Amino acid sequence: MANQSLHSNALCFSPFYENPIYQDDGGVKIVFPACGAKKITLKGMSDYTGLEDKVIELTPEEDGSFTTTLYGIRPGTHYVVFECDGIKTVNPAMPLYWVLNQAVNSLDIPNPDYDFYDIQDVPHGQVRKVFFKSSLTGKTRCATVYTPPSYETDHEKHYPVLYLQHGSSEDETGWVEQGKINFIADNLIAKGECKEMIIVNEYGYGFEPGVTPSRDMRELHYQNKFGDVLINDTIPFIESHFRVIADPDHRALTGLSMGGMQTANIVCANPGVFGYMGVMSAGIRGSRFQAEPKVADEALLKATLREAFLSGGELELAPKGFVNLEVNKSFFDERGIPAHVVLSEGAHEWQAWRVAAWKLLPRLFK
Questions:
Q1: pLDDT interval class at 1 (50, 70, 90)
Q2: CATH superfamily of the domain spanning 4-109
Q3: Is the dihedral of CA 72, 74, 77, 81 positive or negative?
Q4: Is the entire prediction scored with pTM above 0.90?
């Protein structure tokens, strides 16, 4: 039986009609509700899933619904696209997430070897949304904030903060909904394997008034002023509204993919702000997506950055992929800054980032 966390999603925490249905024989049954269609198909959105390059036609049932059962899908979260009589659509009865700036369905295939992101019988922290005005964009921002189990009971205690960022074309919900970061933290804290901490997931985009976001990813990167928003708006808001320890040794920044590149740039441009950083599935040196980060003050960065955490999925490494962990590590080796390298299973996907987060959290705020 699949853990409840695999059915929990952005629209419904505990749906009583499970869809997809994870079978004991390893099959994954998908039901598309009756809609009057003549033909329903699905295909995967990424490589290395077991679905790549396949268009699967669902079978019509007597009640008007369509079904199929999939086998051989790799564990983890995999996005799928449905077509209804040739028109791209979503399955309204399956989990939906914000991906590529649109709503997309997902499968979350169980891994029998992992329970670290399951909902376990342990004390749970709280997840809330907070809203605040940005001095740069002039708009209201939204962040998702995890507070550990003791936050509501020990009112004298102050906590370190991890700012944890999503990837390109996603949003501040990803690390909780797809990444299950709150359950990962709950389980590690319950075992005494990591410090209690606050985890903040911010929206990784911020544009000055009058700027129209470009469709070109390179140009968009230079338009995006998220680093300024984080330093000038997000961190001051969090530190004035939550019980935090407001110094570099108790402040970390980590991100995946685009968020990893942002992390490298922000930490290097603002030495003395973060004592820990993490780059998941992103290039720091030799990246085709951005120039090497510029360090504003080499001595201050070396004096205050305790460790850089570097991770990548085994299927996204160079030369086939764009992640080169040893090249990334050399950026820190040359500066005498400790760097810890982790190879996760999978490719450029949430399963790799879940594993990375699981291994990152125990290393923070020592």
A1: low
A2: Immunoglobulins (2.60.40.10)
A3: negative
A4: yes
